[in-house]
């Protein structure tokens, strides 16, 4: 048995994550922008909108890095190239996040607390999206179970003696 190629099974999961990230971005922009406008005027609106954009960019970088890493590593998740790309992107995101926050820290045209709250909500929302998308995914793990060989010695089917229905 050859090692399963994760690319075909994981790609739809991360596409779903990117789709839901787009929905999250719109929701963050609308709610964050309106709440920011009410709380702090135009700087609050800008903080809400910029926070939504930053949240989605950072969430999207994670999903895109996994897709690129899977392609480069030819679908083998246990590869130095896969881990190098994903971890390198994570470190890049962390550094960019710090640089952006330091650069925007004391700007009069931007309400920093609104920006921070929208980014935090975006991070929590992206974590929820990741967990739900992966939990609902049906990704085979490439493990043979006893009786899965099709022609077992008992002469029955692969599910003979197993009362548990398979979905």
Helix content: 55-70%
Largest β sheet strand count, sense and barrel closure: none
Shape: elongated
SSE sequence, one letter per element: HHHH
Structural class: mainly alpha
Mean pLDDT: 83
Distance between the termini: 24 Å
Radius of gyration: 22 Å
List the uncertain runs: 151-161
Alpha plus pi helix count: 4
Give the strand tally: 0
- Give the amount of beta strand, in percent: under 5%
How would you describe this protein?
The chain has 167 residues and is mostly helical. Helix content is 69%, strand content 0%. The protein has four helices and no strands. It has helices spanning 6-40, 42-72, 80-104, 112-136.
Topology:
Layout: H1 6-40, H2 42-72, H3 80-104, H4 112-136
Task: Describe, in short, the structure shown.
This protein is mostly helical and 167 residues long. The chain is built from 4 helices and no strands. The two termini are 24 Å apart.
Give structural attributes.
mainly alpha, 4 helices, single chain, 167 residues
